Amino acid sequence: MHTKKKICIAFLGNPYHDSRVTNLYNSLVEDGYDVTVISFNWFSEEITNEKKYIVHEISRKQGSLFFYLSFILKLFFSISKTNADIYFAEDIYTLPLIVFWGKLRKAKIFYNSREIYAFIGGLRNRPILQKFITSIEKYFIQKVDLVLTTGEMDTEFLKNFYHLNNVITVRNIPLYQSPTFNFDFRKKYNIPNEKKILLYQGILIDGRGIAIVIRALQKIQNAVFILLGDGSEKVKYINLAKKLNVNDKVFFAGSISQNELINYTSSADIGLALIENISISYYHALPNKLFEYIMAKVPVISCNLPQMKNIVEKYKVGKVINLENENEVVQTIQEMINNENQLIEFKKNCEAAAKELNWQKEYKILQKEIMSII
């Protein structure tokens, strides 16, 4: 590549805690592109000394209107300094400005539709906002050159809903890697060896099965629950654990950068991927945490949503449960805790699955598309 082609990625989130942006950035740089990431940290209190990305600090304390005005102004200020060949809108929030600026610069525009945004769980009882977001997405999605989704169900939905034919699936899958060390949760939280570590990693919000597990801990024996991540509902879950008198079984470990995550994940015994069926977007879920558990060789307990169930059963890496059946949740988790031989078998299957389910292979789908247009 004689002159480096430029790519700009815009994202309402902290890229140091986001595997998709981190992996995309690293792969594009390895391919010889000059990559700029413009991002926004709005809930993590962690300060990093790394300067790889542009990370604007914004706060929600002064209300939603101030938050979004601050976000839009800072995004516009940053992208107005760029002149890229390809612009990535990593979510619907960055899409309008990226389309505007990308068209102005006569660049190619990619839209990373991580979810069915108009139908996410938080909007299920807000029809006016759903219609507003749908109208925004419908207008701007027609103006992009390529739409990416994280699962086949999202791809088919967007093709039909917006009458598109430029949609591809690039799943949110981690790099093929092994831990460089195993972080010792047992030592940090004084957890006895006979107790199994149940791990949830990701943002702490409703609809992720967190409250269901905390309630189940009242009946589950020989287990603790570690939550690796931060989010708007953290205090609510802390209070729920106290209210149910299981706070001695629940530990909040905070956020970990993507570069270190596998070292923490690998020290768990069972990974929980429990998306609740509360919206179209959630029903289509195929979250990165499922693949991160597999990469870390941690057996999985997954909900029975179609795409997640398919991965767990196809690769035989864990068990699938119906979240709406409390007894089944307790029984399945307890059985898995008690069956050491089964856990060993699931770990072996995770190791085999990781050789297929990795970012190095998944990125080739996007790599081919970029090379065909740039």
Report on this structure.
With 374 residues, the protein is α/β, with parallel strands linked by helices. It has two domains: 6-172 and 358-373, Rossmann fold, CATH 3.40.50.2000; 185-354, Rossmann fold, CATH 3.40.50. Helices cover 42% and strands 17% of the residues. It contains 15 helices and 13 strands. It has helices spanning 19-30, 64-79, 95-104, 127-141, 152-162, 185-189, 210-216, 234-243, 261-265, 280-283, 288-295, 306-315, 326-338, 340-354, 359-373, and strands at 6-11, 34-41, 54-57, 86-89, 108-113, 146-149, 167-169, 196-201, 223-228, 250-252, 270-273, 300-303, 318-321. The chain has a seven-stranded parallel sheet, with helices on both faces. Strands 10-9-8-11-12-13 form a six-stranded parallel sheet, with helices on both faces. Helix 1 (19-30) packs across helix 15 (359-373) and helix 11 (288-295) crosses helix 14 (340-354). The model has no long low-confidence stretch (mean pLDDT 94).
Question: What is the structure about, briefly put?
Answer:
The protein has 374 residues and is an alpha/beta fold. The protein has two domains: 6-172 and 358-373, 3-Layer(aba) Sandwich (Rossmann fold); 185-354, Rossmann fold, CATH 3.40.50.
SSE layout and pairings?
Layout: E1 6-11, H1 19-30, E2 34-41, E3 54-57, H2 64-79, E4 86-89, H3 95-104, E5 108-113, H4 127-141, E6 146-149, H5 152-162, E7 167-169, H6 185-189, E8 196-201, H7 210-216, E9 223-228, H8 234-243, E10 250-252, H9 261-265, E11 270-273, H10 280-283, H11 288-295, E12 300-303, H12 306-315, E13 318-321, H13 326-338, H14 340-354, H15 359-373
